[in-house]
TrEMBL record:
Xref: SMART domains: PA14
Region (Disordered): 207-229
One Pfam family cited in the UniProt record for this chain: PA14
Coiled coil region boundaries: none
The protein's name in its UniProt record: PA14 domain-containing protein
């Protein structure tokens, strides 16, 4: 029998980033102590969800039926992907306080009670690369607003779109912070786990390149920690006036 073959077209699709948005952790506050991580601002976790964008005009209403109308705070964490290699401006528009970190750099810090206020910070980014982003917000009283925008020479100022945001799969929140000085000789390293992490591989040493390139057969490999154990105590006392480097790899269960 005769037959003919009709060659099909090549179709394509591109998957979104993990989650397509940022992780929002919503907390209640007792209203009596200052809104600060050392107080109750981020201690009573009430709700965790994925927010497509940070684009909220709550006014005199609550973000969710579980959340107070007043005296609440939010930590948003994720990654942002730069489109172009150039200087980016980030803008927070909030009522009340706000802090913003991009790639570990605190670029906006207005941790005060205030009406709707726009703040701006700048940072150089490389197109196609993703960077950790973290925004803290609290609402004391009155209307509540939390918005995050960006711009660059080739990016019009606008709310950061969902497509540029993704959940953070790498470890983050390094403590001591990256580049910290005057760290005690007996310090505990800690971090926040990435989304879908099942365990953490810890690398530590005094040679930056060696730590960067190490694997589990290298002398710099220290331990594998289970999810829920996001800390590590270096053995013995650390040397005086010495720079140490460390890395945490997330082993995911995706």
């Amino acid at each position: 029998d005769m037959f003919t073959m009709q060659t099909g077209d090549v179709w394509s699709f591109t998957t979104t980033g993990l989650g397509g948005g940022v992780k929002g952790q919503y907390y209640h506050h007792d209203g009596a102590t200052p809104h600060d991580p050392a107080s109750l601002a981020f201690r009573t976790l009430v709700l965790t969800r994925t927010d497509p964008q940070i684009a909220f005009q709550w006014g005199d209403f609550s973000p969710d039926p579980l959340i107070n109308v007043e005296d609440f705070s939010v930590i948003w964490t994720g990654e942002v992907e730069a489109v172009f290699t150039e200087t980016y401006n980030f803008y927070t528009n909030t009522d009340d306080g706000v802090k913003l970190w991009v790639d570990g750099q605190l670029i906006i810090d207005n941790w005060t009670d205030h009406g709707t206020t726009e703040n701006k910070g700048t940072i150089d980014l490389v197109g196609g690369q993703t960077y950790p982003i973290e925004m803290w917000f609290y609402e004391r009283g009155g209307g509540a607003v939390a918005e995050l925008r960006w711009s660059s020479p080739r990016t019009p100022k606008d709310l950061i779109p969902q497509g540029a945001l993704s959940l953070l799969v790498k470890a983050s929140g390094a403590n001591p912070s990256n580049g910290a000085t005057d760290v005690q000789q007996t310090t505990t390293l800690s971090w926040r786990p990435g989304e879908a992490a099942a365990s953490h591989q810890v690398y530590f040493g005094t040679d930056e390149d060696a730590v960067r390139n190490a694997d589990t057969t290298s002398p710099e490999y220290e331990a594998t920690k289970n999810l829920g154990s996001e800390s590590y105590d270096p053995p013995g006392k650390l040397a005086w006036h010495t720079t140490y480097y460390w890395r945490v790899d997330e082993v995911n269960n995706l």
